[in-house]
Design a protein that fits this description.
The complex is a heterodimer of chains A (115) and B (241). Chain A is mainly beta. Chain A is built from two helices and eleven strands, in the order E-E-H-E-E-E-E-H-E-E-E-E-E. In chain A, a hairpin with a 4-residue loop joins strand 7 and strand 8. Chain B is built from ten helices and four strands, in the order H-E-H-E-H-E-E-H-H-H-H-H-H-H. In chain B, the strands form two sheets. Chain B has a two-stranded parallel sheet. Chain B starts with a helix and ends in an 11-residue tail after the last helix. Classes of the chains: A mainly beta (115), B mainly alpha (241). At the A-B interface, strand 7, strand 8 and strand 11 of A face strand 1, helix 2, strand 2, helix 3 and strand 3 of B.
């Protein structure tokens, strides 16, 4: 996720990283990482503190005033869990499609590129 | 080609979702999507979110998700053809040497033609299919991602953000860092190379320095050098069926 703020709304953090805040911590599928008190207050989350706990790299571009948070490194694999990630992407016209809408069907996701 | 497979397997409970990955955005994907006229969801990913979310490192790639929302095969080379004739590339008169060399390497790239048969087996048999993996196998086979690779993904996202805002040097700076930290992410490289030069007459497939402008090339490698170094046969590793 790209951010310019030290704290962001929980929903923004969850949508961008796929990690959800639950009473037991930050969770993706069955994996939960406890967060120290104060990392989030129920409305916003301290991005750097959460990133540290989830072993997410923080890359700062001082020239442009931007920070990017990379994916979590909890398990050391590209997938932390086999539970399908949150993924909401636009179609050609910008209408958002949530992959979760396809629960109940088998799904083949094909990634391609025009180059 | 995915559309035909979708028509065949949709009555048996499969939906196909295609994701066009391109920092150049939806308009770059539009001609291809409109030509395919898909009846399935066809989405656009301008920041390579599928790299972090699904572990996609090359294209085309496929991921299987079952009815409960569990990944049963992680990202792997996927293509809809069930046979590909062996061919030897004959250089075409009038093409630049570099383009003949690129097409000769491309002809050596092998694709695993078992993918569609594996997919049909899973659609028909579900969890009883030997190609549907357990959650532990899915995570293990998704491949390693160390701290450097995760940092590379953050650099790539910064680059895509900067590209979209019109900051070409900024995008190139971060994409170069992404390539160094994620050497096996071929999609990151193809993306950057495809946007690095204009005016070669070969649009986004030149993927290397323009003739006479070699010292302006902003990346450590280019498509032709990369494929020659890795060996075309390793470009799409065979499926671990």
């Amino acid at each position: 996720m790209i951010t310019t703020a030290e704290r962001v709304p929980l929903a923004e953090f969850e949508g961008a990283t796929g990690w959800h805040l639950r009473p037991e911590g930050a969770c993706q599928g069955e994996i939960c990482v406890p967060l120290p008190a104060g990392v989030h207050d129920g409305a916003t989350i301290d991005v750097a503190a959460a990133a540290e706990r989830l072993r997410m790299p923080v890359v700062h571009d001082a020239v442009r005033g931007l920070t990017a948070i990379g994916p979590a490194g909890v398990g050391g694999h590209r997938l932390e869990t086999a539970v399908a990630p949150d993924l909401v992407l636009p179609d050609l016209d910008g209408a958002l499609f949530d992959l979760a809408w396809l629960r109940g069907q088998k799904v083949l996701i094909v990634s391609w590129a025009p180059y | 080609m995915w559309q035909a497979l979708r028509e065949e397997l949709h009555p048996q409970g499969l939906e196909v979702v295609t994701v066009g990955i391109d920092a150049a955005g939806a308009e770059a994907c539009r001609p291809f999507i409109e030509a395919a006229a898909p009846t399935h969801p066809s989405l656009v990913d301008a920041t390579h979110r599928v790299a972090a979310a699904l572990g996609v490192v090359n294209i085309p790639n496929g991921v299987w998700i079952d009815e409960q929302g569990c990944i049963v095969r992680p990202a792997e080379p996927a293509q809809p053809r069930e046979s590909v004739p062996e061919r030897r590339y004959e250089p075409v008169d009038g093409l630049p040497d570099r383009m003949n060399d690129i097409l000769a390497e491309a002809a050596r790239i092998r694709v695993d033609t078992r993918y569609v048969a594996m997919l049909r087996d899973w659609v028909g048999r579900g969890a009883d299919s030997p190609f549907a993996l357990t959650p532990d196998e899915v995570v293990a086979r998704s491949g390693p991602r160390d701290a450097a690779a995760a940092e590379g993904q953050a650099h790539f996202e910064l680059g895509a953000h900067l590209w979209a805002s019109g900051d070409r040097p900024g995008a190139e700076e971060h994409w170069r860092e992404a390539h160094r930290r994620c050497p096996d992410n071929i999609a990151y490289k193809r993306q950057a190379w495809s946007l690095a030069v204009e005016g070669t007459g070969f649009d986004r497939f030149w993927q290397g320095p323009a003739p006479g402008h070699e010292d302006e090339w902003p990346y450590d490698s280019d498509w032709l050098s990369e494929v020659r170094a890795m060996g075309a046969e390793r470009y799409y590793p065979p499926l671990d069926a």
